[in-house]
């Protein structure tokens, strides 16, 4: 029987030989996830000999990663903003850059709660529900409506709301953008598809072959979703409300122009962990 340390080393070496970007990290997260260990447990239990079924499970997962399936797709879940989220075929993986969006939404929600005693958000194209669930978990006086065009995504989002203890404040509706939305909200938030259609074929196989195309494809110029949101946002935004959006690294000026034309004022923008433009926030056109 091989030890945990030996199995980890074999996986890391195989990933390096295959040219994967972060072989050691991939091996560490994959092996620990398959065996149900913390990363510290990987260190402290390195000398433990694995059972045959454990070796087989790790070997099967390594084979999938060598075929360019992402680590967290293999594990079926990923951490986001300190919470655990299940994944499904209809959802993107929630990624660290999107945590920037949550971080800068929270102060606006807190101010809405201070004004009104509570806050309402609508998360358009919710996917796993990661954005809405993270906001609810960190702002107890908030309720969320989450929309998506994929019923599978909404099922996953509802499960994630339940897992993270916010299901009583989380409602889903199926439909594109505002088609299933009624009422006004203190915050409209979205991480919409923003990749130019022609670029999708050039993406890494981890993204191109495993992320749902509907969650990636932003149309001929990558901006279709922003136009759709801007066109209807004013009918669903409460007084003093804001629209908070994730954007592609080169889209800040174009998205800002779309929302200015619709009557909104940019109030904040933020960069991601790599220094790229990633979040824009617009103020309501309606003032108190």
Structure commentary:
- Substrate binds at residues 191-194.
- Pfam families: PrmA, PrmC_N.
- The chain folds into two domains: 4-75, Helicase, Ruva Protein, domain 3 (Orthogonal Bundle), CATH 1.10.8; 88-283, Rossmann fold (3-Layer(aba) Sandwich).
- It has helices spanning 4-17, 23-35, 39-44, 52-66, 71-75, 96-116, 130-138, 151-163, 205-208, 224-232, 252-261, and strands at residues 77-80, 83-86, 119-124, 142-148, 170-174, 185-190, 237-246, 265-271, 277-283.
- The longest helix has 21 residues, at 96-116.
- The chain is α/β, with parallel strands linked by helices and 288 residues long.
- The strands form two sheets. The chain has a seven-stranded mixed sheet, sandwiched between helices. It has a two-stranded antiparallel sheet with strand order 1-2.
- The protein contains eleven helices and nine strands.
What are the SSEs and their pairings?
Blueprint: H1 4-17, H2 23-35, H3 39-44, H4 52-66, H5 71-75, E1 77-80, E2 83-86, H6 96-116, E3 119-124, H7 130-138, E4 142-148, H8 151-163, E5 170-174, E6 185-190, H9 205-208, H10 224-232, E7 237-246, H11 252-261, E8 265-271, E9 277-283
Parallel strand pairs: 3-4, 3-6, 4-5, 6-7
Antiparallel strand pairs: 1-2, 7-9, 8-9
> In what order do the strands lie side by side in the largest sheet?
5-4-3-6-7-9-8
Number of domains: 2
Approximate shape:
globular
- The helix/strand order is HHHHHEEHEHEHEEHHEHEE
- Give the helix level as a range of percent: 40-55%
Total E-strand runs: 9
Strand content: 15-25%
Oligomer: single chain
CATH homologous group name of the largest domain:
Vaccinia Virus protein VP39
Average pLDDT reading: 94
What's the alpha carbon Rg, rounded to whole Å?
21 Å
CATH architecture annotation name of the largest domain: 3-Layer(aba) Sandwich
Structural class: alpha/beta
Question: Could you please say which CATH topology of the largest domain applies here?
Answer: Rossmann fold
């Amino acid at each position: 029987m091989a030890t945990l340390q030996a199995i980890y080393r074999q996986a890391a070496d195989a990933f390096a030989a295959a040219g994967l970007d972060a072989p050691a990290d991939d091996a560490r997260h994959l092996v620990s996830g398959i065996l149900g260990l913390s990363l510290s447990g990987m260190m402290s239990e390195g000398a433990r000999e694995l059972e045959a079924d454990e070796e087989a499970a790790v070997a099967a997962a390594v084979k999938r990663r060598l075929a360019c399936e992402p680590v967290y797709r293999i594990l079926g879940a990923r951490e986001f903003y300190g919470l655990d989220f299940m994944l499904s075929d209809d959802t993107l993986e929630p990624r660290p850059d999107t945590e920037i969006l949550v971080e800068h939404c929270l102060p606006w929600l807190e101010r809405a709660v201070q004004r009104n005693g509570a806050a309402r958000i609508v998360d358009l194209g919710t996917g796993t529900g990661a954005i809405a669930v993270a906001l609810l978990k960190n702002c107890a006086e908030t309720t969320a409506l989450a929309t998506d065009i994929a019923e599978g995504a909404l099922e996953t989002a509802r499960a994630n709301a339940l897992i993270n203890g916010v299901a009583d404040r989380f409602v889903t509706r199926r439909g594109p953008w505002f088609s299933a939305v009624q009422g006004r909200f203190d915050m409209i938030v979205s991480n919409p598809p923003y990749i130019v259609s022609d670029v999708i074929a050039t993406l890494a196989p981890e993204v191109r072959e495993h992320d749902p195309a509907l969650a990636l494809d932003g149309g001929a110029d990558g901006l279709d979703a922003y136009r759709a949101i801007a066109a209807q946002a004013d009918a669903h935004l409460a007084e003093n409300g804001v629209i908070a959006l994730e954007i592609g690294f080169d889209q800040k000026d174009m998205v800002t122009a779309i929302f200015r034309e619709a009557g909104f004022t940019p109030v904040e923008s933020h960069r991601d962990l790599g220094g790229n433009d990633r979040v824009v926030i617009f103020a309501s056109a309606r003032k108190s």
